[in-house]
Amino acid sequence: MFSVTQWDCHRASLKQQAGEGMPVGGRTVSKVGAVDSNRIGERGGSKLNLIFTLFFLGAMVFIAVKMVPVYFANYQFQDSIESESRFALTGYPKKSSDDIREDLWKKTQELGIPAKKEDIRVVVQNGSVDLALDYSVPIDLMVYQFTLQFHPHADNHTI
């Protein structure tokens, strides 16, 4: 059959085919499918990373759901007062300060802006219109509360 030296060569080739005794990353693999003792601490790291990533993405979505509507309402109100300031004195009959204030008050209620009717500043003089409103919106993120301050302003002055 096999002599001793042939048997040793045959065993070495079988080990190589099975992956035993092969150098892998500076270490020698002892058995096929065996866990390297240097990598035991790394097990489950990808699961933990996934949990942290999902938590972070969930937190970002939660914050966006709370804050984006507030900024969007401010953007819409800013657009509304710019239009109102441009066209307030062009119609017939011209709008009074109270009419302009009433139009803006309706828009604040429509958008859900927390402001009082008295806080809307309307100045009409010498053919110019100056409109402004300062308001704040409290944001509650369950673990942190803060207030966003908004100061929309518009006028019909030429540049």
Number of strands: 7
The parts where pLDDT drops under 50 for at least 5 residues are: none
Protein structure class: alpha+beta
Choose one word for the global shape.
rod-shaped
What's the overall average pLDDT, rounded?
Answer: 82
**Order of helical and strand elements:** HEEHHEEEEE
Percent of residues in beta strands: 15-25%
What does the radius of gyration come to?
36 Å
- Strand line-up in the sheet with most strands: 3-4-7
Fraction of helical residues: 40-55%
Largest sheet: 3 strands, antiparallel
* First-residue to last-residue Cα separation: 104 Å
Instruction: Determine the number of helices (DSSP H or I, runs of at least 4 residues).
Output: 3
Describe the structure.
- It is a single chain.
- The chain has 159 residues and is of the alpha+beta class.
- It has a domain at 71-155.
- Helix content is 46%, strand content 18%.
- The relative contact order is 0.10.
Brief digest:
The chain has 159 residues and is an alpha+beta fold. The protein has a domain at 71-155. The chain has helices at residues 4-18, 45-87, 97-111; strands spanning 23-24, 27-28, 121-125, 128-132, 135-140, 145-150, 153-155.
Topology:
Elements: H1 4-18, E1 23-24, E2 27-28, H2 45-87, H3 97-111, E3 121-125, E4 128-132, E5 135-140, E6 145-150, E7 153-155
Antiparallel strand pairs: 1-2, 3-4, 4-7, 5-6
Helix pairs in contact: 2-3
